[in-house]
Amino acid sequence: MTTPSYASFRPLLWLVSLAIFMQMLDSTIVNTALPAMARSLGESPLQMQSVVFSYALAVATFIPASGWIADRFGTRRTFLAAIILFTLGSLACALAQTLHQLVAARVLQGVGGAMLLPVGRLAVMRSVSREQFLRAMSFIAIPALVGPLIGPTLGGWLVEVASWHWVFLINLPIGVIGYVAALKVMPDHYAEHRTRFDIAGYLMLAFGMVVLSLALDGISGMGTPHALVMLMTVAGLAALVGYWLHAANSTAPLFSLALFHVPSYRIGILGNLFSRIGSSAMPLLIPLLLQVGMGMSPMNAGLLMIPVAAAGMLSKRYAVKLVERFGYRRVLMVNTVLVGIAMASFIFMVPGQPMWLRVVQLAVFGAVNSLQFTVMNTVTLRDLDRDFASSGNSLLSMVMMLATGFGAAAAGSLLAAFGHLDALHGATAALHATFVCVGAITLTSTVIFWQLPDTRPSPRDVEEVAE
């Protein structure tokens, strides 16, 4: 049987790349527009974290179900449904008149986004031969790098020349093009052996994630009673413990506890969760500091995010060499400290600061932050065998999005906690205090990476994993 040529898969790769670009663009384009949204909706710009938080939580909640849905209903129908949901969610966001309506629309967007990337990757995995797989995955990884590079600047430009609504309306033509293309080129793959979905485990896991996230967001003082926050925290923890006990006794759990028998995976997944909480707060906090704290225009604030993304792309090239020379443990421990210090250093970003110094500071943060992601993801997945590779990657994706939601909620809670500084000294003081705290949160993950063995793998064992 003749192996199909790489060129025959190119339309599918372009389609999946378009979907990934749409999702990654949306994840970064919103942050620059948050102050404008706050003014339009009559909200405080320091309490707009729910716009980011709701999307990330919806994606994290539905990622575990995306693979089973694609296996059950086919990659083609699932992918088309994902595009429809994401596009309709984008339209609903643009039409929102209140913050609550915007949050609800972001949840709808998140449900579509949760299926776009995993199902697109699954279609590529089942269509492309093993010999062509690495080349195909490298191709579709490019939009994941380009989206964050242009997203903040594009968002700032759209706010200035039109309105914040266009950061969502821009998804409509992309969604229509993607839907038409998917009708023609998306293959319809089903699972070879249909498996029973662990609905009980999924409900416990999803409930635990949602309730804990809402409890963390409730600390921000948005009218949530303290007793309810405590109740949600206990209920969320109980649900996660319930899932743990359920998975230990189930023959086909959503995520097998055997994954945690692999030391590097166990350490990597926990390190990812705690390290990313601080990192995920930064895309929300930096545009707020630049616009609300320093009075910059949305366009100029977006332009200043380019050094973050560009330096991050450049630092990925050195990840392999650093790990080869110093080992995972030393690189992660030292770099985690550097990331925490880089976050806290934003207390020195003040009006009147030379522009070149701001660019250097943002570039340094982008470099060490991206290096952290690359090495963390690699150490998490490197020792998984083929049987656990798929579920291990899905759990990692879920934890990454959950940490994004936690980060946004934590940023909002910290800004609310420092509200007295805002009242006395302005928004800049509250933002500076929050930067110090998220840096400290990141530093706590150092004790997790300290548990890694002090090994130095060969270059071929070190792979750069998409964020």
UniProtKB/TrEMBL annotation:
NCBIfam families: efflux_EmrB (TIGR00711), PRK10504.1 (NF007799). Gene3D superfamilies: MFS general substrate transporter like domains, Multidrug resistance protein D. It comes from the Bacteria. This is Multidrug transporter subunit MdtD. The keyword Transmembrane applies. InterPro entries: EmrB-like, MFS, MFS_dom, MFS_trans_sf. Keywords: Cell membrane, Membrane, Transmembrane, Transmembrane helix, Transport. Coiled coil: none annotated. It is a multi-pass membrane protein. It is found in: Cell membrane. Pfam families: MFS_1. Residues 12-457 form the Major facilitator superfamily (MFS) profile domain. The chain crosses the membrane at residues 12-34, 46-66, 78-97, 103-124, 136-158, 164-185, 197-216, 228-246, 301-319, 331-350, 356-375, 395-418, 430-450. The keyword Cell membrane applies.
